[in-house]
Amino acid sequence: MRNALFALLTTASPALAAGPELTIYAPEYFASEWGPGPKIEQGFEAVCECDLVFVTGDVLPRILLEGQGTEADAVIGLSMDQTLRARESGLFAPHNQDTSGLTMPIAWTDQTFLPFNWSETAFVYDETRLASPPQSFQALLDAPDDLKIVIQDPRSSVSGLALLLWVKAVFGDDSKQAWEKLRPKVLTVTQDWSEAYGMFTDGEADMVLSFTTSPAYHIGAEDDKTKHAAIFPEGHYLLAELAAQLKDTDQPELAQKFMDYILSPEFQGMIAEANWSYPSKLPDDQLPAYFADLPRPEKTLSFPEQEAEAIRKPALDEWLSVFAG
Amino acid sequence: MPRALSAGGAVAAFMFALILGTLGIVAVHAGGLSALGPWDLRAIWFTIWQAALSATLSALLAVPVARALARRRFAGRGLLITLLGAPFILPVIVAVMGLVSVFGRSGVVNEVLAWAGFPPVSIYGWQGVIIAHVFFNLPLSVRMILHGWQAIPSERFRLATSLGFEPGDIGRHLERPMLREVLPGAWLAVFLVCLTSFAVALALGGGPRATTVELAIYQAFRFDFDMGKAATLALVQVGLCVAALLLASRVSRPAEFGAGLDRDDVIPAPGGWRCHADGAAIVLAAGFLLVPMLSVIAQGAPGIASLPGAVWVATLRSFVMALISAVLAISLSLALAQSVARGQRWTEFAGMLPLVASPLVLGTGLFLLLRNVTSPTQLALPVTVAINAIMALPFALRILIPAARALQRDYGRLADSLGLRGLARLRILTLPRLARPLGFAGGLSAALAMGDLGVITLFADSRNPTLPLKLYQLMNSYRMDDAAACAVLLMTVSFALFWLFDRGGRIRAAL
Fold this sequence. Notes:
Largest sheet of chain B: none
CATH architecture of the largest domain in chain B: Orthogonal Bundle
Strand content of chain B: under 5%
CATH architecture of the largest domain in chain A: 3-Layer(aba) Sandwich
Helix content of chain A: 25-40%
Structural class of chain A: alpha/beta
CATH topology of the largest domain in chain A: D-Maltodextrin-Binding Protein, domain 2
Distance between the termini of chain B: 34 Å
Shape of chain A: globular
Order of helices and strands of chain B: HHHHHHHHHHHHHHHHHHHHH
Protein name (chain A): Thiamine ABC transporter substrate-binding protein
CATH topology of the largest domain in chain B: MetI-like fold
Radius of gyration of chain A: 21 Å
Signal peptide (chain A): 1-17
Oligomer: heterodimer
Helix content of chain B: over 70%
Largest interface: A-B, 63 and 69 residues
CATH class of the largest domain in chain B: Mainly Alpha
Largest sheet of chain A: 12 strands, mixed
Structural class of chain B: mainly alpha
GO cellular component, one term (chain A): outer membrane-bounded periplasmic space
Number of helices of chain A: 14
Number of strands of chain B: 0
Keywords (chain A): Periplasm, Signal, Transport
CATH superfamily of the largest domain in chain B: MetI-like
Subcellular location (chain A): Periplasm
Number of strands of chain A: 12
Number of helices of chain B: 21
């Protein structure tokens, strides 16, 4: 009886792949059947003679709680705001990849954290509901207040935090005034991206804080060409997701092999339509055509990690003083 | 001969160890508690007043609805009572979807207002938080107060009728003493629920003005990695719980109606305008509670058939896990309720603790504790089952305590004098007498367990996902239509679980 119950609860087939186990911590969305995880697992296991296991959850907090005793051999899905804290933990080892050939809008020189995909923050709209979207960030601030947008909370969401930095990068010392102009247009602030995006697709808001690559999902998966990212000449803030290997892994060769695999054409080719973002090393002509045709901003904004961390707290206080003051 | 420690005492001790112990582990791991900043203090203040307002509104609005349901008889009454309980067991995200579709910018209410030429109303802001909390908790208050009405022995109403009592006299001699006993408990339960709710406050709060303590804990965990602060904030929540419990216990007085003969008589219902008022209370409550759910169903139901197979497997898994959680929750809460009824008040406090335990801090403490024993991934499912049972415990306990007290008061001495003890007492006296509240408590626990994500930040097993986890994954992969269908599925199964237990309890009680 007890065994039957256990079998019922854990229907997943035991690992089919033979060989040593490579444990990779990943965010929940990444390893789900609708994320890139399963394909990557299959692809890597075909070449590594090992069993790749994704362990999901909040990746960095978990690693920091575990310290050197962590069972992770590598991690994937860290966000750019986490690199400083991750680096200071001293738990991670260099990725040993040549990053000069990356197809990213900025040069990447970090030797520890390896980007595997990227996108930029953007406000996404539906042309059937918003015929004339603002043509610049300034125009968005100057738009009438009945234009309603949904954003995410910078205290609980990566994209919400990226918006803080985006505003800082565009408006600098005038950020507070920018927030004050934006505030009446903010319908609500959600805890995470999915809630805000759901409100947008339900027709509750005219624009939602999302990514320049979000329209690709609607074109590729739903054949819906009405969703667009408003491209602003002031520039858009870079969001990359990163991978790294642990210094104290008991599978150093496999972890290194996984780092190599990340920049391989096979891995890179899976990203666009599984992660709905740009792969970090793939020429445009190898992207699906509709993906390569997405409008791209002329300018990509990004703060170095030290600067981003220094900006975060004051920018957060500024945001709170406008939105909660 | 008194035993050293009753079952209830053991459960209570375990709850203390678990909730305060995990908090302590987190604090020790962090090297002590950290100080709070000005924004944290504002979050604490907002948390308290929105919880107090939500609880007061829920309790006050519930009285006319519960009275109307208690004394009126109409076709479909039983079904309506069950359906009105549904919002409480809805997963937060589903409820928010429903409320937005009714009260939101493009919702039904605003479309009607626009058609009639009125300016739109906004749900976003503190009013949204309160509407959502009343939506969630009115069902709980109605049910708890309705139980109070039903617990007044019908002989008292017959006596009142033969004495020629007017509605005002019935109010003074029967209803108000009952409310004095039941209302503080109902208020307390809602207050504590609202203390720890944070997803609701955020989505409908319109901005960071509506920040609750639980969000501040998440921020400390995810962005600042300041576990000391997380522990401090969790401790503040426990402190608020103690204060609220003390307050409620000072206000609550037992009604002392004595034992009745369990006749299933109808409570006398006054006619005239009171009949119309009762009708209006029922219609308004039903409209407020059921329309958002109908809207969610209308949106998601068409997509259910095309949900991928993995979702169905997850549904079955969650169903079984919820059953185990429910049995665990009612076993623990029955033990606690009986020791509360025997006068051990401290066990009641232990049983209410999970309500204010921060799931994130509890999960982090458990993680630190268990990771040396075995892999947290291996433990994901058992930990989820256990945490869901423990999180449902306070609700089950609140439902059982009044009934267990009445049982002890009315039958305790007789049972003692007959030497009825142990399993025999459980089988012959306790279970049959408490069947109705036990069924309700079990249904509630199962439904809550079905809809809960558990502590996915640290204990998730992506190879064996639960249904709420699937919903979360769908939403995070742009698949909002599938997510809507998944939400309807989740709602249906939660409700079915609730109905099964609740029905079972009522049938058993009728035997």
